[in-house]
Design brief:
heterodimer, A: mainly alpha, 10 helices, B: alpha/beta, Rossmann fold, 6-stranded mixed β-sheet, 4-stranded antiparallel β-sheet, about 25% strand
Chain lengths: ~280, ~270
Amino acid sequence: MSETQLTAERSIRPSRPAEQSTPAEPWYSWPIEFVNSLFEWFGGMGVFFWQVLRAAVTPPYEWRELIRQMDEVGSKSLPLVAMAGAAIGVVLSMEARSSLTRFGAKALLPSAIVYSVVQEMGPIITSLVVSGRVGAGIGAELASMKVTEQIDAIEASALNPYRLLAATRILACILMLPLLTVSADACGVFMGWLTQSLAEPLSLRQFIDSGFKGATFNALLPPTLKTAVFGLLIGLIACFQGMKTQGGAAGVGRAATESVVLSSLFVILADVVLVKFILVFFP
Amino acid sequence: MGEIDMATALNTAMEQDDGAEESSVPAVAVENLEKTFGTQKVLNGISFAVDRGQTLAILGRSGTGKSVSLRIIIGLVQPDSGSVRILGQEMTGLNMDEMGEIRKRMGFLFQHAALYDSLTVAENVAFPLDHHRPDLSKSDRDDRVAQLLHEVGMDGHFKKMPSNISGGMQKRVGLARALALEPEILLLDEPTAGLDPISSGEIDELVLKLQREHQMASIVVTHDLHSAKTIANRLALLDKGSVVAEGTFTELQQSDIPFVKEFLKQS
């Protein structure tokens, strides 16, 4: 490195600040800060949810935007969700076949696949896929609108952004998640049958009859409908993270990441509660 | 006269009274506005009023609360204390939907235009009409959009995306969008900031033309003294969150206040 370069580098390097003795923070300061930020987040989320709820139930209703969002959340997630459901069906079929054969319970294979897919794997995989695709999309879109003052412009145009942007997206997630789950379930069951029939020929009708034998409303519907709650969580968290963004491009990236991470985490946590709820109230 | 006729006459008289009362009050009246962000006091009791057909330019150094006062007037920021009356109606303390009714009578041009980046130029201008004028047929709406874009000199750019037009053009489109609902009050946040002198002059000309044609009350926040002198009837100079001087440009030139002298000299 030449002398000139070294001089130039030295000249642009900030001068070292005078050493100051800052009092060391007590060890308990970070847990307090963490708890504070946790309360702040939940408080902010509560206020946000209330504002969205109030905007959603009072006219005017944004039907056109709702339909656009349903297309965005539903139709555009369908290929991804169907593929994920199909993959789960194949994997479950292969795994369950070897285990059940070992215990001499091969006849239970269709039921094992159907129940696993419909009761747990379909709903949770669909929700996680939607959380990744839609949660990141909503978070990044609203965050970008926030930092470029587009949300302020909506408000200045005498429109309620909670109604136009948040309520429509959250409602679209709530309505589309159960439908996407049904699609994922159908793909999972079909691919489960296909994998099974490649190893041992069995008609689809026989597979379905055997798989759904003895299936009741309580066994199939509540697990599918619980995804509406997952939809609420995904939409709510993504809209909240997006609309509270600050700090330019870095803020937009942070909002997208946090939307996915937090909504996926809350979907998994809510699943624990909802499974227990379903077992208690829909035995 | 029957009871119904009496009631109708009474209602008409009351409506006329309301109209007369509304036209006698300032279009915008701001009183003792205070706002603090964290530990920084941005506004320290500012007051001013703007009548219909008048333009007030708010000048001052960066960070003196010019844009914040404009955002408080449109309701995007809530003040800590003080009052904002728009056409006689108190703006502070209202919820978003109540504020919306007053905002329909106002237009706001953002510093960076804040156009919706997923919509075309024409769709941006049509946005307020689509939501607030469902009575307009599609052809009437398209005619209105074309007329607005013609007024701001943006003919032939209807289908362009905001990212594909220059900063000056974005401000023109932002202005057309602000005028879509035929507002009685126009708020302009740094309309010429970041523009070359020719574009700045064009925006000034445009604002003057619109004022002449629409007789709106306008508040312009700007750093640009030349622009303020061109488009405003009165100027208010802000320093440390307070109005230090208010009057015509000539009155400000004659002021003995050191800050005013310094500001005019440096500008």
